[in-house]
Write a structure and sequence with these properties.
The longest helix has 23 residues. The radius of gyration is 21 Å and the shape is globular. Helix 3 crosses helix 4 and helix 13 packs antiparallel against helix 14. It contains 15 helices and nine strands. It is about 50% helix and about 5% strand. A hairpin with a 4-residue loop joins strand 3 and strand 4. The termini are far apart.
Length: about 425
């Protein structure tokens, strides 16, 4: 039966969402043919609107990169009908780096496209992760208690969700902050927190965990684990700090002004500590790790200062100095991810560009556009790429993380 099961979630088989409206594949095709003109017109209108919006925000080359990435990102998601919750859920496949289901540090870089164009869809993407973290799998047939103090890394290997907590690739600060930031952005953008009611205790516990390990996450892994270990990682630490400020925004929206003030105070105190730990001895930029003077790295996570309007955490002069340093480190095809190597991540570079001024953003976009035009690697849009040659690295291709290109759309709007 074509498309009968799209995902198995802890014992429950879930069919593709299109089967809710069209019982068979043949019926779905018949519908598409019969309505082809209307569907095509709607697609054309969406394409034109999206291209114009991105061009206005960042220029024609930025819009062209978005046009290249959009289908790739959407091709990495699968919406199903959850018969237990009686609601649609959406899963994301990591692709090429491996086949994991709903990897939280792949959801995070992909999130700007969804948060900008359809935050309800991103809620559907978070729902399977949250159900797992809330010890909700027994209702689906397999009782897999989630006993970790931090957020999950992923749910299983496509198309099977059955991962035990002990089998997770543990990234405690990384994934916990990723979840808090995404959930805060949705809540602030929609000015609504009712959807968070079932998760209030979980979010408070996650925020408490972050306080217990910051400002120094120690020897934890971060999403850039392909580079190897990076203990005392400054970019990971600042993500945790920003997520606590994001949690304060959630608490404020829930009507708890005193609680929000407490969490905001915690975030501001940690931000001050972070600046002291992270700033290099010469004061011109921040380090890759607290304990490695003379190093540097892209602090792409700081873009949430703009996206969530968290400017009270860091003086603008501090951010301006960081941006000025980035401008001095750009290579032919982009800004290296950090001082360890000449390669970069295309998605994170655009985040860093969006943190900066218009000049830095234009430079990042122009360099990435040039890489796309010059690369001899005839594969889908790569995200781990060289900045001194137009080559792809590590087989990172066709991944939905390129939804991160839409970060400019979040950073330029006050919410």
């Amino acid at each position: 039966d074509e498309g009968a099961v799209a995902m198995n979630y802890f014992g429950t088989a879930m069919g593709p969402y299109w089967r809710k409206a069209h019982g068979t594949f043949e019926e779905a095709v018949d519908y598409a043919v019969a309505h082809a003109e209307d569907i095509g017109a709607r697609c054309d209108a969406f394409d034109a609107r999206s291209f114009a919006e991105m061009a206005e925000a960042g220029g024609a080359r930025y819009a062209e990169l978005g046009a290249l990435a959009y289908r790739q990102v959407m091709g990495g998601v699968q919406t199903v009908w959850n018969p237990v919750a009686a609601a649609p859920w959406t899963f994301l496949k990591e692709i090429s780096s491996d086949g994991d289901v709903s990897t939280v540090d792949v959801l995070y870089p992909a999130s700007p496209l969804f948060l900008h164009l359809n935050p309800e869809l991103y809620k559907q993407m978070l729902a399977p992760v949250l159900a797992y973290a809330m010890n909700g799998t027994a209702a689906y047939g397999e009782d897999v208690p989630y006993n970790l103090a931090w957020a999950p890394h992923h749910l299983g290997v496509w198309p099977q969700c059955h991962l035990k907590p002990s089998a997770q690739e543990q990234m405690p600060v990384e994934e916990t902050a990723n979840m808090l930031l995404g959930m805060a952005y949705i809540s602030v953008k929609q000015n609504a927190t009712a959807w968070l009611k079932p998760y209030e205790g979980l979010l408070a516990a996650w925020a408490g965990y972050l306080v217990s390990v910051l400002p120094d996450p120690g020897n934890q892994l971060c999403t850039d684990d392909f580079e190897g270990p990076s203990p005392h990682n400054a970019n990971l630490a600042v993500k945790g700090v920003l997520s606590l400020a994001a949690y304060a925004r959630i608490v404020r929206l829930q009507g708890d002004a005193a609680g929000a003030a407490r969490w905001q105070g915690v975030a501001e105190a940690l931000a001050k500590e972070w600046m002291g730990n992270a700033t290099d001895v010469n004061g011109t930029h921040t380090k890759l790790q607290y304990n490695l003077p003379g190093t540097w790295s892209q602090k792409y996570n700081m873009v949430w200062v703009k996206a969530l309007d968290l400017g009270e955490l860091f003086p603008q002069s501090f951010i301006d100095a960081e941006v000025a340093f980035y401008k001095s480190a750009v290579n032919e095809y982009g800004l290296p991810l950090d001082s360890r190597a000449s390669f970069t991540k295309a998605d994170w570079s655009v985040w860093t560009g969006a943190l900066g001024d218009d000049a830095l953003f234009a430079t990042i976009v122009d360099k990435l556009h040039a890489w796309v035009a010059a690369t001899p690697d005839r594969v889908p849009f790569g995200d781990w790429i060289e900045t001194t040659s137009a080559r792809i690295r590590g087989g990172f291709k066709a991944r939905p993380v390129m939804g991160g290109l839409w970060i400019k759309m979040l950073a330029q709007h006050k919410i």
